């Protein structure tokens, strides 16, 4: 066989590395990962920092934890990462060994946003002591947050990060409204009177390295739903018990309230729109709403799902009458991800085709939160590890 016919049969061999890099920049990240196993030369090309940074990113899987059966000991929670396909080795190491090597004995997943993971890390110490850490599982870079000012009552933490805008991130701590009482003044019998009520927010900026406190502009009766927050449009969005989505920006200057048609435990962003899912109590219905006019605060009913008809009665565990547990919506498609029944069957539901796809059964006795993960290879700020 002459040289010219050989080149015709192997056109890729005639491409320069620069041209291959330009092609790889247009390949989805998941496909890029498959190319790593092709050969050493392809591994080198696909591992190029420019390719990893600029390659299109999409939802790749979920972080979660589970109890070790049969002890159900909170100190023995295991870490998991399930790929979106439900098969194969985890795309990233869920144990976060690079953090355990930093003298931490336990790691709790708190929130995930555009490739960064917010964790509560227990130190090796004779008494209980923790750090809050923001890390990038894909690059194993991480930083310890300075401790915010201690305030009475409980709090919830959320992460805000948009690599298309900045390499810096924000952390939000929603602090409870406790009527000015100190911890030793709180009557345990009256906890329900203020439980979850938001009094203010501490906001950390990785750019300034400082926390700032802002009193809530949502009103004293705002009651947040735990693990409901997402970062969208440069602001934290959380759902509340009074059937609304409340937002605050990274500077604590803009506070808004977006009424929802019904009380919703889940909100998510998909294809540039905010979605809310209402789980009908004492029935098998889920209603999915989309905020088509963000500025006008106008919601439209996207779809109503009868859980029993769709999934089958054997898959539904009606704890207090609640249908399946919605944990995420795909940012680029019409897939809604849910967990069904006591067996923790992980499925996706396509709102366009109205078809269900089994993904896997989650490991062990899995627990909230289930955190959707999109890999990110953007540059890390200089004060991290």
TrEMBL record:
Ranges for domain F-box: 15-55
Domain of life: Eukaryota
Classification via Pfam families: F-box, FBA_3
SUPFAM superfamilies: F-box domain (SSF81383)
Record NCBIfam families: F_box_assoc_1
Protein name, UniProt field: F-box domain-containing protein
């Amino acid at each position: 066989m002459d040289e010219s016919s050989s080149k015709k049969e192997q056109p890729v061999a005639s491409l320069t590395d620069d041209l291959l890099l330009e092609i790889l920049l247009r390949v989805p990240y998941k496909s890029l990962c498959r190319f790593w196993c092709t050969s050493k030369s392809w591994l080198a090309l696909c591992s190029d920092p420019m390719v990893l940074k600029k390659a299109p990113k999409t939802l790749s899987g979920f972080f979660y934890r589970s109890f070790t059966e049969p002890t159900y000991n909170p100190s023995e929670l295991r870490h998991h990462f399930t790929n979106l396909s439900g098969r194969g080795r985890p795309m990233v190491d869920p144990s976060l060994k690079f953090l355990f090597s930093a003298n931490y004995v336990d790691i709790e997943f708190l929130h995930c946003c555009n490739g960064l993971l917010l964790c509560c890390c227990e130190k090796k110490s004779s008494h209980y002591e923790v750090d809050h850490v923001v890390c990038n599982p894909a690059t194993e870079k991480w930083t310890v947050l300075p401790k915010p000012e201690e305030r009475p009552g409980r709090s919830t933490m959320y992460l805000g990060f948009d690599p298309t805008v900045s390499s810096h991130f924000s952390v939000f701590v929603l602090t409870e409204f406790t009527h000015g009482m100190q911890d030793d003044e709180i009557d345990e019998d009256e906890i329900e009177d203020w439980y979850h009520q938001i009094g203010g927010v501490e906001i950390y900026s990785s750019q300034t390295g400082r926390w700032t406190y802002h009193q809530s502009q949502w009103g004293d009766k705002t009651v947040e739903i735990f693990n409901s927050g997402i970062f969208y449009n440069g602001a934290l969005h959380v759902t509340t018990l009074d059937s609304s989505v409340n937002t605050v920006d990274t500077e604590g200057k803009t506070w808004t309230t977006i009424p929802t048609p019904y009380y919703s435990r889940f909100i998510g962003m998909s294809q540039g729109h905010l979605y809310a899912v209402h789980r009908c109590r004492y029935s098998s219905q889920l209603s999915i709403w989309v905020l088509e006019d963000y500025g006008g605060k106008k919601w439209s009913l996207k779809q109503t799902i009868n859980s029993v008809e769709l999934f089958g009665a054997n898959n539904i565990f009606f704890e207090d009458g609640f249908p399946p547990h919605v944990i995420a919506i795909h940012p680029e498609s019409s897939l809604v991800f849910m967990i069904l029944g006591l067996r923790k069957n992980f499925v996706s539901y396509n709102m366009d085709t109205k078809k269900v796809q089994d993904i896997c059964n989650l490991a062990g006795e899995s627990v909230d939160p289930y955190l959707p993960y999109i890999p990110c290879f953007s540059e890390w700020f200089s004060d991290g590890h």
